[in-house]
Design goal:
It is built from 5 helices and 27 strands. The protein has 414 residues and is mainly beta. A hairpin with a 2-residue loop joins strand 14 and strand 15. The longest helix is centred in the first third of the chain and has 17 residues.
């Protein structure tokens, strides 16, 4: 089962105020040991974090002049006007690429060359991008991951991009990389990568979360993407997308919105199996017995979710890497349980009773040291207001919204 702790906007303000008063208001003066019990409050719960008196809390910010890391990820206005998807940002990954025992830092850049910083020790880094061969300025880089994909003992770089190409940069063990496709020939609005040996055969497999390489908001005028222009009525309260628009749109029955919803299509995610030599073969998720829904049935069509993040982790304690996928907008997150042989099944609704709206990222860890793997998800939530629109049927409304950041923590328990 899952326990969800939601920190609402008001709750976040209370937490900040609480942090300032935590040593005076939340611990009786006569106590000599910290009170670490959880305390219930309106819409959230909190507990004190004991800090040894000899240590100052928090992190120390180091200036680029001290570290040598001067990287910035900026996108030109002219590019954003053409494709607003480029504003999604890009990833960072760490690994010891040259075998000197220190973690090095790779930073993906949306527009322009990526950067690899070699760790010199003592919090100092040098830019070795040119000699390493990982600049890849010819693409809109998004997600990255280091992993030993060919089993030779060094960390290779997996790099995905918005609209492609996706590629493997094979490491020679000394921090020099050669770009190869290694089977990653599919192109999409790729965002992030999850890596694990899903079937226990000793090599690392890949899952790539995809979004969409573009949006019709940048390609079609408001008049051309209007509901009546994109769809046609085929019966009482029944509509279909006109053939010219089917690549980009679909219609869904949305009882929660009171009618039919016209939605943009997303790019399906990619799953790749490793042949043991670092070459990958894509397997479909639909009509594949490796992936089954909550009832144990194979999927009849590829899921079209706006994926932003994916992670492999053993979430039920059976030793096999399960898969959690975070999706944007109103696409629900997915939790796929692994049977230990690389066969996945969606968790039943009562195992994951709610997920975030507009998920952005997910991290895993045992946050309370109880031996269970917990999930921490960052997402984008909204204050909603509705108004009439021409892109509607049976009272479907256009949504305008003001966004605030929010987080959800899911804790597993038995």
């Amino acid at each position: 089962m899952w326990e969800f702790i939601s920190f609402r906007q008001r709750g976040c303000a209370r937490v900040l105020a609480l942090a300032a008063l935590i040593t005076t208001a939340c611990r009786p003066a006569q106590r000599t040991s910290a009170d670490t019990a959880w305390h219930a409050a309106g819409g959230y719960r909190w507990r004190q974090l004991p800090i040894p008196p000899a240590h100052a809390p928090g992190f120390t910010s180091l200036d680029p002049s001290r570290t040598g890391i001067t990287f910035r990820n900026t996108v030109s206005d002219s590019s954003l006007v053409q494709n607003r998807q480029l504003a999604q940002g890009a990833g960072v990954c760490l690994a010891d690429v040259d075998g000197d025992g220190r973690p090095d830092v790779f930073l993906a850049r949306t527009e322009g060359p990526n950067v690899l910083y070699r760790n010199l020790g003592d919090w100092r880094f040098e830019d070795i991008t040119a000699t390493a061969g990982v600049a890849a300025p010819d693409r809109y880089s998004t997600g990255c991951a280091f992993a030993d994909i060919d089993g030779d003992g060094d960390q290779d770089l997996i790099l995905v991009s918005l609209g492609g190409p996706n590629a493997i940069f094979v490491n020679d063990g000394k921090g020099h990389f050669t770009e190869e496709t290694r089977g990653l020939t599919d192109r999409a609005g790729s965002m992030s990568i999850a890596v694990a040996d899903v079937d226990g055969d000793g090599d690392l497999d890949l899952y790539i979360a995809n979004y969409k390489a573009y949006t019709t908001l940048d390609r079609l005028s408001p008049q051309e993407r209007a509901f009546d222009r994109v769809t046609r009525r085929v019966g009482p309260n029944r509509y279909e997308v006109r053939e010219a628009y089917r690549k980009d749109y679909k219609v869904l029955e949305r009882a929660d919105l009171g009618g039919i919803s016209l939605q943009q299509r997303a790019d399906p995610d990619f799953f790749y199996r490793n042949d043991g030599r670092g070459h990958f073969t894509r397997e479909p998720i639909a009509r594949n017995p490796r992936f089954r829904d909550e009832q144990g049935r194979t999927l009849t069509e590829e899921r079209e979710d706006f994926g932003l993040a994916a992670v492999f982790a053993d979430l039920n304690g059976d030793g096999a890497p399960d898969l959690y996928v975070t999706n944007d907008f109103e696409d629900p997150d997915q939790l796929w349980l692994n049977d230990g042989h690389g066969r996945f099944r969606l968790i039943p609704w009562y195992g994951l009773r709610s997920t975030s709206n507009s998920g952005m990222a997910v991290a895993v860890g045992d946050v309370n040291a109880d031996g269970n793997t917990d999930l921490f998800e960052g997402f984008w939530t909204s204050t909603w207001t509705a108004g009439p629109t021409s892109s509607s049927a049976r009272g479907t409304s256009a949504i305008s919204w003001t966004a605030t950041h929010n987080t959800v923590c899911a804790r597993s328990w038995e």
